[in-house]
Design a protein that fits this description.
- By secondary structure, the chain is an all-alpha fold.
């Protein structure tokens, strides 16, 4: 290794390269004189280990928690439906109010148009009546004295009391005959 090689690069190299199989070496015939060189010590930087954020295993909710959550969700759905219904009714009310206001405005406009048309028609009819000439007729209505005419009519005198008595007795006879028919005969 050279002096420039640092501990970090060596560790990286060793960690990334697969281990090589070393074949058996023959013993060297002669040893050469080795100079001892002072090895410079390089300050080793401590590399902070990468923190892997391990998530704690998700806590499984209990059955009671699941039921509570489902009930809350159902209640929210129910309230949502009610909210939608309120919105629908409010929209319908707003539309109806707008339609009523529009109809009132249109009604007043229609009434004014019809009144103008009526005035025009009235003026036309009056003009036609003025322009219309009736032929003169020589017919005169005879004068009738109604008192005199009614005094000539003779009405028979009727005795209302006697007529009423006759009617009453005939009704009583009819009632008696009906009673006799429906009353069982005694043995």
């Amino acid at each position: 290794m050279s002096e420039a090689t640092t501990v970090d690069t060596v560790i990286e190299t060793v960690a990334t390269k697969p281990a090589k199989k070393v074949a058996a070496k023959k013993a060297p015939a002669k040893k050469a004189a080795v100079k001892k060189v002072a090895v410079k010590k390089v300050a080793v930087k401590k590399v902070a280990a990468k923190k892997t954020a391990k998530k704690a295993p998700a806590k499984q909710p209990s059955v009671l928690d699941q039921i509570t959550e489902t009930a809350n969700k159902a209640a929210m759905v129910y309230l949502g439906v009610i909210g939608k219904a309120v919105d629908f009714v409010q929209e319908g009310t707003d539309k109806a109010r707008t339609n009523v206001e529009q109809a009132r405005a249109d009604r007043q406009k229609s009434v004014n148009e019809l009144a103008k048309r009526g005035e025009v028609l009235k003026a036309n009819v009056e003009k036609q009546i003025e322009d219309f000439e009736l032929p003169e007729l020589d017919f005169k209505m005879p004068e009738v004295d109604f008192k005199e005419q009614f005094s000539k009519i003779e009405l028979p005198e009727v005795n209302f009391k006697a007529e009423f008595d006759k009617l009453q007795s005939s009704i009583e006879e009819a009632v008696e005959s009906v009673k006799e028919r429906f009353t069982p005969a005694k043995a």
